[in-house]
UniProtKB/TrEMBL annotation:
This is SulP family inorganic anion transporter. The chain crosses the membrane at residues 20-37, 43-60, 88-108, 115-135, 173-192, 204-232, 264-287, 308-326, 346-375, 396-427. Keywords: Membrane, Transmembrane, Transmembrane helix. The keyword Flavoprotein does not apply. The lineage of its organism: Bacteria, Pseudomonadati, Bacteroidota, Cytophagia, Cytophagales. Residues 437-523 form the STAS domain. It is a multi-pass membrane protein. It is found in: Membrane.
């Protein structure tokens, strides 16, 4: 696609991308702040990363719909990294080196790793994220959560877990927050009504924007007329208010390069690069599944984009970034069509820091929780579970195991567990289903012809050995590799081992176009 047609595509979709970018901004702002807080980093550092992710990385990204920023999955790594290196300024150097590593991974075409995640595991990840969003937002929705907005781990910093937090929340409901949350949720659901969707003017205004503005208004009424229902400041957005350049300088931290000679810096950098790259590739695969246009993202380009982002962000005092599934799925849910929506979200983050901090700090978290409750439900609809079940156990079991593993641990551990189960079913399928075929003829002696397929990998080894072990005695077996462009060494070895011992069962073996390999004699 040439530059002119790209520009016209972006312009044509502005009416959808700008409102979507605004919705993502509302969700991203408290997430950026919360992740900074949980990481033990300056509050402003997460917002800087969100701005870089939107304003810069969106244009370099291999995906039209992914949104980059600080990730909840990196909080422990950031926290430990700052502690290991002694200061946040020293940690920023490790982030920059991680960016260089990611850039290198992109040029080495490591993005292809993303293609090896089974579909059932990616769908399980989406369903799990949706489920976690719902469970994690309920306490914010009722105004009774002390953990940071956007926290995703099962075991929480306050000693509770995802489920006990909900029980605690219902025992200490803040009714003002609940009222605001309920009205916000009703507005967002109402905005999905076909009458509003088909209205030329109203369809341009995102329901989340209406909900947020209404939430601010209702809380102002509570403060002035019903102070008992006023939402506590701890359950409002808390953005640093910058009155001057000196305020900005005091919030931003700059890199300390004295750690260049320290091995610990490179260990932390490598950890960030690998974890951030994996989380990005997982998010990209998931967003591609949600994309209504089913576009395939360029994962190598995405790694390069993330590398550039992780070089720029620490130079400005920002946290490491990844493509983030929560922001990306919110983007899709809000109707985004192109990368412009991510760029718009970055612009709004920058504007909110410079000019709108006072207004932003009046937004109740319960209203933003309502936005994420809707996003969560769209990701984990009952229909998804039903569809996966209908596909059979070899698809459903890796799917449901991934959901449960992510729910009770975290994203990367859960995905690893899901992958192990998924690979087990792949190996099981290869064990049962031969990638070759045979023809059997009955004469004086059984003649069995086994014709190997075009590509015979080590995954086919088990099925071939199984077939050879069950060949009838007194047979004449022809194993034909004429059509094979590639036969794995392990398979060749198995065939020659069979030939060597076949006489014990009175089986005559004839090999056609099968390369010779040396079989080790263990006797």
């Amino acid at each position: 696609m040439n530059q002119e047609s790209s520009s016209s595509k972006y312009i044509a979709n502005l009416s959808k991308d700008i409102p979507a970018g605004l919705v993502v901004f509302f969700v991203a702002l408290p997430l950026c702040l919360g992740i900074s807080l949980a990481s033990g980093a300056p509050l402003f550092s997460g917002v800087i990363t969100g701005i870089v992710g939107g304003v810069v990385v969106a244009w370099l990204s291999g995906s039209q719909l992914a949104v980059s920023g600080p990730a909840a999955g990196l909080t422990v790594i950031v926290l430990n990294g700052i502690e290991t290196l002694g200061s946040f300024e020293a940690f920023l150097l490790a982030v920059l080196i991680a960016g260089v590593i990611q850039l290198g991974l992109g040029f080495l075409k490591a993005g292809m790793i993303g293609l090896y995640f089974p579909s059932s595991v990616i769908k399980g990840m989406l369903a799990a994220i949706g489920l976690i969003l719902i469970l994690k937002q309920i306490p914010h929705f009722v105004g009774a959560d002390d953990d940071f907005f956007g926290e995703m781990d099962f075991f929480q910093a306050d000693g509770r877990n995802t489920f006990t937090e909900i029980g605690h929340a219902f025992s200490s409901i803040q009714f003002g927050a609940l009222i605001v949350g309920a009205i916000s949720l009703a507005i967002i659901l109402l905005w999905d009504n076909p009458k509003i969707k088909n209205n030329k003017f109203l369809k341009l205004i995102p329901g989340a924007l209406v909900a947020v503005l209404m939430a601010i208004l209702i809380n102002m009424l509570f403060i002035n007329f019903l102070p008992a229902l006023a939402i506590a400041p701890t359950h409002l957005v808390n953005l640093p208010v910058l009155g001057s350049i000196s305020d900005f300088k005091s919030e931003v931290k700059f890199m300390d390069i004295s750690g260049l000679t320290s091995p610990a810096t490179y260990i932390v950098a490598f950890t960030i690069a690998i974890v951030a790259s994996l989380e990005t590739l997982l998010s990209i695969e998931a967003i591609d599944k949600l994309d209504p246009h089913k576009r395939r993202s360029d994962t190598n380009r995405e790694l390069k984009a993330q590398g550039v982002g992780n070089i720029i962000a620490p130079l400005l005092g920002g946290l490491p970034m990844t493509a983030v599934i929560v922001r990306g799925s919110t983007n899709v849910s809000a109707g985004a069509q192109t990368r412009v929506s991510s760029f718009v979200h970055g612009l709004f983050l920058a504007l909110s820091v410079m000019f709108l901090a006072g207004l932003m700090n009046q937004i109740p978290l319960s209203a933003l929780a309502a936005v994420l409750l809707v996003v969560g439900f769209k990701l984990t609809k009952p229909a998804l579970y039903k569809t996966q079940f209908k596909l059979g156990l070899d698809q459903f079991i890796p799917f449901i195991v991934t959901v449960l593993a992510i729910l009770f641990t975290d994203l990367l551990i859960g995905i690893c567990v899901g992958l192990v189960v998924g690979v087990f079913f792949i190996l099981k399928a290869n064990y049962k289903s031969p990638y070759f075929y045979h023809k059997e003829e009955h004469r004086d002696k059984n003649l069995i012809r086994i014709k190997l397929s075009e590509h015979v990998s080590f995954l086919n080894k088990a099925s071939i050995i199984l077939t050879l072990d069950h060949l009838p005695e007194n047979s004449h077996v022809i194993i034909d590799g004429e059509n094979s462009a590639y036969i794995d060494y392990d398979v060749l070895e198995a065939i020659h081992e069979f030939k060597k011992t076949a006489h014990e069962r009175n089986i005559k073996v004839e090999l056609v176009n099968i390369d010779e390999v040396e079989v080790m004699d263990m006797h």
